[in-house]
User: Which sequence fits this backbone?
């Protein structure tokens, strides 16, 4: 039986200490794959602490709960029995409304900061900045990522751009005529951009623990675009084993890279955010992308990417003449917004808002018969969850029925490029 | 002998009336190619008026001055004897500093407008806008173009983007895998972007009156990117004959378009701006591009393109899901800046500044022996002119000599992709 010494004096919460102990023991193989973990009760008396730690490890794919049996360590490698997501056929696409970020955005604080910037910083507002963006903003982002996402990044690696779509275009210029891999199902805009740029785009099917690595290995994919911390729309968190396998795949060839799309990591509603793939990468193979348009308001267009050191020289050679697409005004306003703690506060407020909305959604669901026997999946990360229904209805009819009851939902099949042939009975629900 | 009735009561200046009379007579062939025009004295007593009209016609390629002989009508068609620009060989590239726009930019006015926008328009600042940009801004630009550039454009045709580079990328997404033509010599950033996007890029040599149309016709070019009103770096104004021939070339095939890069039309220092190719186009073949980054400050990233009606449907189909890359704040600030007349005022101030700088530059030139016998070319459009030297020096030595005397200059050969084999003895001088 394992015993861990917990330090009450450390600033880290206890559950994080347990989480780290177990993770390290698994990585060093002190705990082996398949090994049963101590029951929560057995390990310590602080039940809540252990629960949190286990849920965190589970979210990251380290351990697995088996009903009535307890917790078991997972293999930290490519799972051989790859479980395909079901496939079916349907055509109707429905747009889901965007979240009302503007209602949550602290406009008066932002306006105050803008006024301060306008009053004091004329010279730097009128000075042309490097293509990567203002150094101050890149420093503020690096610090934020260190505090909030536990990522060690140098400001020099960060590139600012007016929206992630623009950053994808820059990456195309940087990486040239590569073959891109995208997730199936997935966010169709991403493949639309790559194919629009004339690039070959291969769809790699999702499984329960991340993309299908066999398909990836047998494809011509050079650049794999994924969202390992919270896949859209399935909400899948890529397991730790797959994460390492993905990094392994990328390191096999010089021209292979992974684009880690971390689009909603700030909205994890329980537990600590899943560690980024970027922070596991020691081979300089991961390009990390995130945006402020989702966390602030989409009417402010500021996104960023973090390049591995291996691509920095190439970036400067090829793209240093490009002008940064975000105006100085807004870059410096964001610096102040982050540095004064407003961004962190705002995120906290948004998370609380979405958590309340989620809980309300879940109690609303109990009022309708259609939800009887349904299972909620992946409800802790991001701004939506999946619900698997027990129903004879077609997905189309199911969606209609659910919307009739006032829910804002979308059918999972809509996000497949190749529509599944059978009904999935799975809908997406947004927390707004 | 031709006689024209001038109306003193019309709001148009007299020289513009004469200009329009002669232009129409040439287009209707009342004045035929090669015909001698009335001497300035013979036509009317207002010498200055005629002078202005003739210079405008000359700038646009309608007429030509022959020393000691007078003015002659030009052929309004493709010139058969195409005069190639000389070619030579050199390698040294030198960057020329950017103009000090921030010294001229009315920062306090802009800040005042920003404060007003922040104080009053919260809802529209927080409302997601269409990919094309704010309708109000597109209306303001359409009105400005009508007043200032004599262009009839509907706001629906205008697309706002964060810099022209981003707009080129959007055009690539819109037009797909086309073969692009660029001017040689030219602004290397443009061909860099297209080749960076993996597109085939054909260089079409410049002649004294615009690009070589024979080369264009014999090439695979589908999209020709040109700056007919003021070519960089030669300053060439594409003659009216070539303009029509270019439109004719584009109309021959469905997949052909012209991108008209009107990057510095606001800085024409004498005469009315050259009419845009877009406004001559009745076949829906010209895409017009311009930017506010040059006229305001490069730290505000707002550019726009005008699509012909034939491309609007395709744009909405392919690109309507893309987010506009310019923030609402700055779009609405620019609306107010244009509508309140500040933009026009600012342009006027900049033109005066550059005119003064140019005149100062020309008097400075007289002080140095190296300029003896040199000829200034294309000095009325844009922010630079060319000077052809009478010298035995190599271009490299010439540039060094001129810079030693304190001039900010660049050698013309630097802008050739394929460097000329002989010395050109032509340098560029900037008015700042």
Assistant:
């Amino acid at each position: 039986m394992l015993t861990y010494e917990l330090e009450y004096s450390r600033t880290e919460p206890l559950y994080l200490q347990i989480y780290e102990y177990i993770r390290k023991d698994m990585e060093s193989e002190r705990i082996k794959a398949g090994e049963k973990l101590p029951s929560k009760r057995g390990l310590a008396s602080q039940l809540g602490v252990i629960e949190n730690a286990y849920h965190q490890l589970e979210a990251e794919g380290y351990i697995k709960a088996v009903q009535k049996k307890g917790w078991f360590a997972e293999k930290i490698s490519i799972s051989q029995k790859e479980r395909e997501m079901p496939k079916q056929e349907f055509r109707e696409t429905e747009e889901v409304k965007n979240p009302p970020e503007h209602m949550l955005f602290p406009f008066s604080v932002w306006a105050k900061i803008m006024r301060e910037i306008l009053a004091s910083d004329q010279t730097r507002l009128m000075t042309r900045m490097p293509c990567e963006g203002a150094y101050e903003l890149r420093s503020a982002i690096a610090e934020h990522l260190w505090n909030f996402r536990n990522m060690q990044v140098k400001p020099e690696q960060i590139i600012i751009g007016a929206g992630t779509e623009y950053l994808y275009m820059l990456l195309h210029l940087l990486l040239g005529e590569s073959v891109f891999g995208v997730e199936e199902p997935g966010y169709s805009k991403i493949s639309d951009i790559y194919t629009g740029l004339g690039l070959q785009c291969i769809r790699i099917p999702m499984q329960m623990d991340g993309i299908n690595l066999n398909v990836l290995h047998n494809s011509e994919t050079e650049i794999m675009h994924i969202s390992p911390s919270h896949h859209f729309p399935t909400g899948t968190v890529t397991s730790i084993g797959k994460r390492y396998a993905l990094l392994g795949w990328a390191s096999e060839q010089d021209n292979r890279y992974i684009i880690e799309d971390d689009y909603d990591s700030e909205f994890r509603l329980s537990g600590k955010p899943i560690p980024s793939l970027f922070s596991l990468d020691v081979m300089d193979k991961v390009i990390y992308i995130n945006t402020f348009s989702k966390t602030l308001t989409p009417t402010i267009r500021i996104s960023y990417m973090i390049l591995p050191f291996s691509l920095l020289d190439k970036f400067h050679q090829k793209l240093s003449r490009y002008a940064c697409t975000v105006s100085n005004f807004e870059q410096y306003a964001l610096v102040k917004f982050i540095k004064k703690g407003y961004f962190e506060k705002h995120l906290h407020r948004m998370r609380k808002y979405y958590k309340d909305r989620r809980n309300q959604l879940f109690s609303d669901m109990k009022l309708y018969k259609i939800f009887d026997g349904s299972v909620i999946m992946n409800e802790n990360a991001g701004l939506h969850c999946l619900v698997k229904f027990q129903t004879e209805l077609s997905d189309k009819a199911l969606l209609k029925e659910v919307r009739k009851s006032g829910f804002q939902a979308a059918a999972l099949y809509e996000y497949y490029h190749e529509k599944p042939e059978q009904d999935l009975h799975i809908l997406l629900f947004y927390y707004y």
